[in-house]
Amino acid sequence: MDVTDTIYDVxxxxxxxxxxxxxxxxxxxxLNVLLCEMNDLASATSSASSKLIHGGLRYLEYxxxxxxxxxxxxxxxxxKNAPHIISPLVxxxxxxxHLRPAWMIRAGLFLYDNLSKRITLPKSxxxxxxxxxxxxxxxxxGFEYAxxxxxxxxxxxxxxxxxxxxxATILTRTQLVAxxxxxxxxxxxxxxxxxxxxxxxxxxxxxxxxGPWVENITGKVVKERTHGLRLVKGSHIVVPRxxxxxxxxxxxxxxxxxVFVLPFExxxxxxxxxxxxxxxxxxxxxIETAEIDYIISITNNYFKRQxxxxxxxxxxxxxxxxxxxxAEDAKAVTRDYTIExxxxxxxxxxNIYGGKITTYRTLAxxxxxxxxQVFATMKPAWTKQAALPGGDFTDRETLMAQYxxxxxxxxxxxxxxxxxxxxxxAKQLLTGCETLADMGExxxxxxxxxxLDYLVANEWATTLNDVIWRRTKLGLLLxxxxxxxxxxxxxxxx
Length: 494
Known about the structure:
The protein has 3 domains: 3-45 and 154-227 and 334-385, FAD/NAD(P)-binding domain (3-Layer(bba) Sandwich), CATH 3.50.50; 72-150 and 230-330, D-Amino Acid Oxidase, Chain A, domain 2 (2-Layer Sandwich), CATH 3.30.9; 396-493, Alpha-glycerophosphate oxidase, cap domain (Helicase, Ruva Protein, domain 3), CATH 1.10.8.
């Protein structure tokens, strides 16, 4: 289908989690949807989160009770709908009496347990650290509570796959460069960054889910008023595992911020995040020396196993696009979202401000609900009960056992990665293969030609980083020669 010959119901700008969530919701309600993303899916904020599905325990200190309640309810929905990429995670919070008194933490955890119904996760409890604890010996008491872990970039890709399955058109590396209304219809100029060609497409409505670039669209492309977005940078480091247990740790600091130490890709710890006001182009965001020192210092204050700059194997930074409020400190700015429908002076425009990955689905549902003023006959909301692609199974252990039976030749470690990355989609990679040799060239770290071909053909992967950092996390394991070979192969099949 030629996109220039179609009048779409909805054009979504932005291939982060909010954009693809909206595209998926709208397509499933029967609307004809086109999504454009100027880079890769999840190439900015949506691959640079702390990778948690959580209510946000610390938000209770800022009286964000509504946001926490909404997020806690969504935690259960997402655990059920994406069991391959989302899993329960128990957190341990070492108690430091001079930072927060025990009664305050107990009160916060009581609210956390009871603001929304818990189905799969245990309630919080007090906890005593023994000599086997990875924490320094003077830390004796703490608390435990449960949240969930998510592969954030895969959550984004899976929503795009679902949107496509419901009829949406997904165009990556395609940038909105101009927009105007003609006879009540948006006429939108899209630049194909690969070919340099500019296309003009038409749509009855426009959804601006451009994340850190949302004000660029409203101010420069649509020529609409702006709100003064506040950009807050969060940075993380990845180091070899700091501790040997499977728990996450939440560390308090003197400045009232917290740092997570999270199990990451079996052999690593993911440590962060920071909260720093950011000026400049979001595409240029990177961790700064002061942020590295900050994260290392807090971590070393707690753990027996010390880390240094030389320990760092990977870093990433992302920009949270937050609406200005009265908060002076970046850590206190609200993480809730705002959805704005504007119809005056042009065809319908929906602007998305703020949000967090945990509440992307409710944000998407609310955004599409706004369009009922435009499309009165569209179908009702549907995503709450719908498994994401690959998530149509009960639990990982059962699926692992099934794959071990059906594909006995597959190494156990590779089976485990396929289950937690693709779920039931992995059958597409494996069907027709009877030996490991049938998977084609081994590019290293368990990345075979069959998987790479699948990612290019089905998941919009066009560059090395699309594959090794966003579709997988194999960039942690591949050496430079292996990366070069993958790049070479992808150039051949492009």
